[in-house]
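Protein: Nuclease PIN
Species: Enteractinococcus helveticum
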Amino acid sequence: MKLSVTRLFSADESGATHVRTLAKLLVESVDLVTQMFGASPETGTALDAQLDNLNAQASKTQTTMLTALRSTYLTPLPREDLYLLGTWINRAVEAVAITGTIIHATRQYRLPARAGDVLEILTRQTDLVLDTTSQLNSPDELESTWMHLERLTHQAQRALVTWRLTDADELLARHYYRQQEVARSLEATFLTLREFSTQLGRILVRDS
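Structure follows.
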């Protein structure tokens, strides 16, 4: 099979496009979980179903991305980098969807304001993840975004600890353990985003 000069020397943007699609799905999933705060059980059921759908879309997008990367000769970043970035975002979508399932299954729609603080940090992080997908060829912008992600990761850990310690003093055991399931699921999401941020750091160090 003959390969054209254009195909050999023009960067294929499809892998980066799939990473951006995954980032958009992550932003949408966090928005849906946020809507669960104060929702009725009926609304919660609908939101949980939407989260499941987004999770399925993310898994499908990752599979499509892998197929595209395997058949690509030149990409804006090394194929392995794009794959890992997409993988961590996909896992974050999954973690967010699980959080929604836990909220719905345990009927924890009236979470305290401290949980809202945690979700606000998560929302800011996912917006930054989306920003990175348009900065892959701009090291200075990418470094600035990475720094913000790292700072928010530390804030998230502190906010989670505050939430857990306060709940331990204020809630009955049954409600406490249910809320802790939500907190643990959100923590898993933050840990996944920390891996995404670490991969960004590797890219920045290598390409410096």
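Remarks: Residues 18 and 153 are 25 Å apart (CA to CA).
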